[in-house]
Automatic annotation (TrEMBL):
<dbReference type="InterPro" id="IPR015424">
    <property type="entry name" value="PyrdxlP-dep_Trfase"/>
</dbReference>
<protein>
    <recommendedName>
        <fullName>Aromatic amino acid aminotransferase</fullName>
        <ecNumber>2.6.1.57</ecNumber>
    </recommendedName>
</protein>
<dbReference type="InterPro" id="IPR005861">
    <property type="entry name" value="HisP_aminotrans"/>
</dbReference>
<dbReference type="GO" id="GO:0004400">
    <property type="term" value="F:histidinol-phosphate transaminase activity"/>
</dbReference>
<feature type="compositionally biased region" description="Basic and acidic residues">
    <location>
        <begin position="1"/>
        <end position="12"/>
    </location>
</feature>
<feature type="modified residue" description="N6-(pyridoxal phosphate)lysine">
    <location>
        <position position="223"/>
    </location>
</feature>
<comment type="function">
    <text>Aminotransferase that catalyzes the conversion of aromatic amino acids and 2-oxoglutarate into corresponding aromatic oxo acids and L-glutamate.</text>
</comment>
<dbReference type="GO" id="GO:0030170">
    <property type="term" value="F:pyridoxal phosphate binding"/>
</dbReference>
<dbReference type="InterPro" id="IPR001917">
    <property type="entry name" value="Aminotrans_II_pyridoxalP_BS"/>
</dbReference>
<dbReference type="InterPro" id="IPR024892">
    <property type="entry name" value="ArAT"/>
</dbReference>
<comment type="similarity">
    <text>Belongs to the class-II pyridoxal-phosphate-dependent aminotransferase family.</text>
</comment>
<feature type="compositionally biased region" description="Low complexity">
    <location>
        <begin position="18"/>
        <end position="33"/>
    </location>
</feature>
<keyword id="KW-0663">Pyridoxal phosphate</keyword>
<dbReference type="InterPro" id="IPR004839">
    <property type="entry name" value="Aminotransferase_I/II_large"/>
</dbReference>
<feature type="domain" description="Aminotransferase class I/classII large">
    <location>
        <begin position="33"/>
        <end position="350"/>
    </location>
</feature>
<dbReference type="InterPro" id="IPR015422">
    <property type="entry name" value="PyrdxlP-dep_Trfase_small"/>
</dbReference>
<dbReference type="GO" id="GO:0000105">
    <property type="term" value="P:L-histidine biosynthetic process"/>
</dbReference>
Amino acid sequence: MSETSPKLRAELEGIPTYKPGKPAAADGPAAYKLSSNENPYPPLPGVMETVAEAVRSFNRYPDMACTGLVDELAERFGVPASHLATGTGSVGVAQQLVQSTAGAGDEVIYAWRSFEAYPIITQISGAASVRVPLTAGEVHDLDAMAAAVTERTRLIFVCNPNNPTGTVVRRAELERFLDRVPGDVLVVLDEAYREFIRDPEVPDGVEIYRDRPNVCVLRTFSKAYGLAGLRVGFAIAHEPVAAALRKTAVPFGVSQIAQEAAIASLRAEDELLGRVGSLVCERTRVVEGLRAQGWTVPETQANFVWLRLGERTAAFAEVCEKAGVVIRPFPGEGVRVTVGESEANDIFLKAAEGFRREL
Ligand SMILES: Cc1ncc(COP(=O)(O)O)c(C=O)c1O
């Protein structure tokens, strides 16, 4: 066998691998998974039926243009179909956005800590990451982000609400920021958790994108719509950007099963958003419960809460796991805990209370 191995792009060296949330143990005490911001509700029966029907033809390639889904989304959001681009989850679309705008010598700006895929997809494209620390209140520092723009900047992610802190940026500050960003820099409003927002001051990115050609909105069926395992997300963007997304898409990347399930979910939106409402009530209960125990919890508008535990992060995660809930530790920084079924939230609250008493 030859001693040499294929030459790989130097940019791939040192890329952090994406860490998926740990699954709940099959045989251990941890019975609930609160580590991936998933929807705890099982699929709706109507969506399951649609999927069962779509399964019958998976010997065929899917509709590459996702025509039915795109038409439905165009109507739902009041945007031209040509402004829509679908992909394998919104993370797939995010990767295409970076690929379409930034390469070696270019810069991509995002807050930190934020969604852990941003550094990965930026490095894969060969561009440099410019990380702007969150404020002391765990919120995007939009002034610092605007100040970080250089002539090399190609794309800026604004994750609203932010993963993993759940914090939001509001209308006035976002508009002020966008006014400062040059028109040739793409601003991606990542709204994966949009449906969980209850703060009326948080703008709907789709309204912002309408008269700003350099703004693009990312949405997903993974969270509120409960289709995480089917991998379908989309962007709403003006034509040059949407067209670039269609060029960079993996052909047939969204299965017919995912397309049909997404359409069925849009049609069952009332019921799905009712479930989101219940999760938002649970979120309030979890946040208030933690605060009553003495924890500092940033205001969250997503389906998770953030506790900045610093050096105690790993110990806290271990206590939770022993109690029966798997959460997401970011070693040395803090933990992100998804709001799940009420039994899981009860277990988490009890574990947090026990941990606090030991401090
Ligand atoms: C902020 C944010 N954006 C995008 C995604 C990607 O979701 P998906 O690829 O399932 O649409 C996630 C998933 O956790 C997220 O937290």
